[in-house]
Amino acid sequence: MTDDALGNMLAQMEAAEPYADVDEGVFERLKHPERTLKVSLPIERDDGSVEVYEGFRCQFDSARGPYKGGIRYHPGVSMDEVTALAGWMTWKTALVDLPYGGAKGGVVCDPTEMSRRERESLTRRYTEGIRRMIGPDVDVPAPDINTGQQEMAWLMDTYSMYGGYVIPDVVTGKPIEVGGTAGRVEATGRGVAITTRRMFEYLDRDLDGATVAVQGFGNVGSVTARLLSSMGADVVAVSDVSGGVHDPDGLDVMDIERYISENGVMAGYEDDAAADAIDNDHLLRLDVDALIPAAIENVITESVAEELRADLVVEAANGPTTVAADAVLRERDVPVLPDILANAGGVIVSYLEWVQNSQQYSWSLQEVNDDLELKLARGFDEMLDAYTARETPDLRTAAYVVALERVGKAHEIRGLFP
Ligand code: GLU
Q1: Per-residue pLDDT tens digits for 168-200
Q2: Residue 64 alpha carbon to ligand 1 centre in Å
Q3: What is the domain extent for residue 281?
Q4: Do both 121 and 227 map to the same domain?
């Protein structure tokens, strides 16, 4: 999807190394994923032709528990990209202290151009392709860009068919009817809203009346925008791949969600609501209290970082800020709440779903949301502690210190085999 997500992930690790207490040999091995599988997926298209798609699953690290991470359907997926994303999952699960490692999968495709039947075939064939390397105690996939509850249900069904019995805990983010948990769909966006509120408290600023711009209006961006506006913030701009809208007095997020559910995309909403159209480039440069990239990697480039006017960046997407941009923002004193904390809500509630599956018991939405909030608060506090105690240059480095030490310790205790 992007030129160098992997380069960015490795550079973030390297930047944290001098501040972290991690054995040199252990750090060396942490720079390499444990394994990556590449699969070819022949699918019969609706017109009768056969198209062969390319898919990947990278298992980055498992020192602390089973591999965990989503599956992405996007034309820009590559082996390097899933490796970077699997690395980020490793640091994310470690930072919020889930007993997991990190993984990521993806298929190079444009699901918006595929029918439901084609997407089902692709999902089942991909599941068959990776089924020998996943499993409830081994590697547990979940949704990511362009995948959701339906894809997870197909994955669970395919895996269960091969197993000969129902195996719900092979995947998280399932529909409630087949073992999903209350609160999973909203979890990532809820986590972004909760950590943004915490960040405002930390910066001693009022979220009530604060202006927010959200780039990306998929599962994460839409929930983030809705919850932040219910917390009193003014969401002044949002966008998706089709376009964006801007209203300095604040947008009606629920009305935008209604428009998208009726029209499929955001484009055209400006005429419906008498708001101004805005493109992604302008949205990133708006003068707002918080800018929340919630789409893809590397959107905050060096030049965007030089020109952006937000007082705070909250990374709802994975890897939205390049390493060069990070340096500019640090120089300009613009704090960045790092992705591995800001968007950890999704995998936290995935973990709660997996635990419920293994106990064959379901929790209430309240129980799920309370635990989500607790785990995020702990991660936030530990990141801040490292920021102060280790005098790291920014919050991302502090978050990496916590994560690297946790994963590093697990490697040291387990030892190097053979
Ligand atoms: N795809 C999400 C992420 O990037 C969730 C992963 C999961 O729940 O395993 O964090």
Answers
A1: 999 999 999 999 999 999 999 999 999 999 999
A2: 17
A3: 187-342
A4: no
